[in-house]
Write a structure and sequence with these properties.
The chain has about 190 residues and is mainly α. It contains nine helices and no strands. The longest helix is centred in the first third of the chain and has 23 residues. About 5% of the residues have low confidence.
Length: about 190
């Protein structure tokens, strides 16, 4: 039955990605009870839990096109958003800080089923990898080669100069310029 529900939720998220308001209402109707319960455990206030839930569904509306079922089940994805919005509310109101992470993770484990890797970490790593790949592809071939060798093979500037049979100053300049371009490019994805 969970597979049918996941399939139904994934189909609704896909429709929301196409800006289908009815699908958003249906998704809300099917998931809001569980998500509200999670938010309430985090913020411990009915008013704040309602705010977190509302913020979550605004985020769903905006980010549904980015959802990838292969990275996380729909309820885990929604649960992460509720958790994030709830924590944002707590931070804004400067309340309960230190012991929250353990309690929230326990609440998520009790509320949401699944033993897949942490979807937020997986999604973030995947987004960062795509951004880095895109930014690397924009570098000049020589810069890309030098930067890749320096960081992927952990070679020093001197070792690179020797391996590539280039002057040390050239290698340093290419790395510096390549990293500057990568920094600028990656900042657009942050």
């Amino acid at each position: 039955m969970a597979d049918i529900q996941d399939a139904e939720l994934m189909a609704l998220i896909e429709r929301v990605a196409a800006q289908d308001q009815t699908a958003l209402k249906t998704l809300y109707g099917l998931t809001s009870g569980k998500l509200y319960g999670l938010a309430l455990r985090v913020v411990r206030s009915h008013e704040w839990a309602e705010d977190a839930l509302q913020d979550t569904f605004l985020q769903v509306w905006r980010t549904a096109p980015d959802y990838r079922a292969s990275l996380s089940p729909p309820m885990a994805w929604l649960g992460l958003m509720v958790r994030s919005r709830s924590l944002d509310l707590l931070r804004k109101r400067k309340t309960e800080r230190e012991h929250l992470t353990d309690e929230i993770d326990e609440a998520m484990a009790e509320t949401l089923e699944g033993d897949s890797p942490n979807p937020m970490d997986t999604s973030l790593a995947s987004q960062q990898a795509r951004a880095l790949q895109k930014c690397l592809s924009q570098l000049d071939n020589k810069q890309r080669e030098v930067v890749s060798l320096a960081y992927l093979r952990d070679l020093s500037h001197g070792e690179l100069a020797q391996q590539l049979k280039l002057p040390l100053g050239t290698v340093k300049t290419w790395i510096r310029r390549g990293l500057d371009q990568l920094r600028t490019c990656m900042a657009r994805f942050a």
